[in-house]
């Protein structure tokens, strides 16, 4: 039987598409590209690591915003949290045990507003797709909605200075919780397990577990950065809420504007 000569790749074979897919490699979120080779099979090639570092840096900025919002909400808006729904559920349970109707309304409204924000954010951001870039456009759509909610927050806050009534405080808390619910859904679009800017108990558990297992620092550093950003945001937010009341909302607007502006330059 005569031997077949090798088939030369045609121009159509040479053309290849590529897509971004997320993987978790040694505990670190990474992005890999899959390309078609001349035989039609999929070959994975690494995406630029600097895009991942930039994305993580922006998530850290959003976590700083979360800490600030929680501090402002707890100290100035009725003693509930804007993003820590576990804490608000505990407060709701405490209110039932103590017969504290005011605390029940405050914590309950925060929880409901957060849920509404999550639903709205999920509708805009959608779910992770195999061909997603490092920073999908849908994430910024959700973050833009969050920005609009915070703009309303700022307007209500400033118009009711120097002191807010209890009703105004409740409205402000609900706006803040809804905005952070949107943000939670936006971060979920990345499809990276464990990546969040709002609920971080799992991040702390993972960090301490990694320390106990003597994991390399490059695996622990992203988790530590997020947790430090949360605490730093809470500290700055507390100072602003107590001593610079008129400027406290800037801690919610400025970081979000920065993230939207920088992420708009990511490759799509």
Automatic annotation (TrEMBL):
It comes from the Bacteria. Keywords: Membrane, Transmembrane, Transmembrane helix. Signal peptide: none annotated. The chain crosses the membrane at residues 103-122, 142-161, 199-217, 224-242, 248-266. InterPro entries: DUF1275 (IPR010699). PANTHER family: SLR0142 PROTEIN, UPF0700 TRANSMEMBRANE PROTEIN YOAK. This is DUF1275 domain-containing protein. It comes from Micromonospora musae.
């Amino acid at each position: 039987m005569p031997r077949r000569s090798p088939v030369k790749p045609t121009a159509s074979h040479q053309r290849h598409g590529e897509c971004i897919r997320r993987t978790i490699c040694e505990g670190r979120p990474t992005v890999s590209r899959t390309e078609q080779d001349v035989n039609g099979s999929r070959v994975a090639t690494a995406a630029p690591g600097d895009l991942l570092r930039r994305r993580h840096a922006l998530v850290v900025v959003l976590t700083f915003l979360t800490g600030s919002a929680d501090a402002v909400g707890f100290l100035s808006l009725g003693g509930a949290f804007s993003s820590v729904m576990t804490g608000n559920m505990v407060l709701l349970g405490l209110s039932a045990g103590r017969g504290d109707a005011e605390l029940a309304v405050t914590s309950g409204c925060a929880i409901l507003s957060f849920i509404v924000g999550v639903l709205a954010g999920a509708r805009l951001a959608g779910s992770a797709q195999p061909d997603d870039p490092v920073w999908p456009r849908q994430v910024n759509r959700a973050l833009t909605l969050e920005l609009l909610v915070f703009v309303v927050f700022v307007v209500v806050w400033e118009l009711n200075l120097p002191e807010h009534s209890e009703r105004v405080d409740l409205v402000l808390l609900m706006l803040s919780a809804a905005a952070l619910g949107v943000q939670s859904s936006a971060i979920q679009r990345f499809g990276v397990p464990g990546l969040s800017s709002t609920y971080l108990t799992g991040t702390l558990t993972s960090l301490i577990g990694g320390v106990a297992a003597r994991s390399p620092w490059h695996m622990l550093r992203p988790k530590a950065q997020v947790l430090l950003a949360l605490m730093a945001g809470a500290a700055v937010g507390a100072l602003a809420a107590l001593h610079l009341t008129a400027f406290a909302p800037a801690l919610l607007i400025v970081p979000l504007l920065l993230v939207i502006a920088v992420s708009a330059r990511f490759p799509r």
